Write the structure tokens for this entry.
Amino acid sequence: MREKKYGTTIVFVVDSSGSMGAERRMSATKGAILSLLLDAYQKRDRIAMVAFKGNDACVVLPPTDSIDLGKKSLETLPTGGKTPLSAGLQAALKLIKQEKRKGSKNNSLMIIISDGRANVSCGGGNAFNEALSICDEIRSVGIQSIVIDTESGFIKLGKMRELANKLDGKYFPMEQLQADQISGIINELV
């Protein structure tokens, strides 16, 4: 009897705030997502994307293996505004839990792409500490994570490394990665 193979639900949690507006950062992010969509059907993987900016987060790409749907979502991804990191994490966690409730047997991988400069809280407290507390729940339900740090410039706060540690996830600085490397790292995990 053949063992049934399950894919992975890969949820990109993308910071589309003003600090992420730099063309190179968004270009690398979009390239990685498109590369993964090309492989998704063969591997039974499903790709989703949650974007956060302003005061909120939303699912801009529901779980899919459709390359066309993925491209359309990426083309219309707006940037600008504040950084509600905790809202992005919460929306991605909710999306993964919904997939599990629907009966998905896929593994779950969350890929968080941000500079970590959270400045909007959902509950009124410290925005970054709120994000860290959501990491506890993400880790406790068995979601693997990769954290890609887009922080650039002379002064770096290292917030995304702290987030990766809290998630027991893998950490990579974006400035050392290209789109094909991001998809390679993901393929090693799934």
